[in-house]
Amino acid sequence: MRVPRTTRRDIERASVGGLRHTATVTPPEPTTTSPPPPEPRPTADVRLAAEAWESLFRAQVTLMRRFQADDIWHDLTMREYDVLFTLSRAPQGELRLRDLNEGMLIAQSSLSRMVERLEARGLVARSVPADDARGTLVRLTPEGARRQRETGLAHVRTIAEYVAPGLAADELEQLRDLLDRLRLAQAEIPDRPSS
Fold this sequence. Notes:
The chain is mainly α. It has a domain of 100 residues: Arc Repressor Mutant, subunit A, CATH 1.10.10. Helices cover 49% and strands 8% of the residues. Strands 3-5-4 form a three-stranded antiparallel sheet. A two-stranded antiparallel ribbon has the order 1-2. α2 packs across α5. It is globular and about 55 Å long. InterPro entries: HTH_MarR-typ, MarR/SlyA-like, WH-like_DNA-bd_sf, WH_DNA-bd_sf. This is DNA-binding transcriptional regulator, MarR family. Keywords: DNA-binding.
């Protein structure tokens, strides 16, 4: 079997942050058990994907800074509010700690400490599930539900103030639908092999 030699392909010439990027692709050694590597997408797709990601990321950073600066959180942090919000959307207002962690950008150990602080303030309660003595269930308390609703109403108003003026109603619907598609598509896209 002939082993292909290393090839150089310009798969990305995106002007991201004013820099030009060129990637070198080295095909992996062929084996009888691994499928052939996927063909790189055309340069325009790579550039457009990079530009779309940068726009999405910059918009999120800008909005998150504005939300954090708002005086609506009282004694909650935005991450603590996110825990209360996530629990408010869960069946019976409770989730296993590992399931709560899946939707958050935070290490599980940090989330565990945050849940302990929220429990000490009476906003959540922890328990051990009947079917898993090593697991932890986190439940929203009535006070936690009240605080989530109160803060959530104020937060929705600030979201409307900052997001709605920038886009027409049909554009907001399209943005919502596109971002949902992008998020859901990630389950179908294989992870990159670790090096």
